[in-house]
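re: ur question from yesterday

yeah so i grabbed the chain u mentioned. its 97 aa long if i counted rite. heres the sequnce exactly as i have it in my notes:
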Amino acid sequence: MDTYFRELPGSMSLADQSLAIRGEESKAARFLNSKIWVNAQHQLSNLVEFEEINDAPATPLGKPKLSKTLAAGQTPQWTGQMIVQGKAEETVFLLRQ
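ran it thru and got these structure tokens back, copy pasting raw so excuse formatting
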């Protein structure tokens, strides 16, 4: 399957970034990874990698939710660094609802 990238501006909140990921996944894609990068305007941003999916997953992906905290018993699908509302966050978790 092919992968592609989308920029999520670092000015966005975690809730808005979660919605952007959800919107991209609604177009037959799956979140894979996010990295901090500097865009063409020399601004810190997030470069998010998605994988195109041809067939619906056997189990639904669930709604993506980015969070800075992890409750007991929760297992994140992804953990990494992101720019959130202009600030570098060392640890962000992607959870599925």
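noticed a couple things. Residues 14-25 form the longest helix (12 residues). also The helical segments are 14-25.
anyway ttyl
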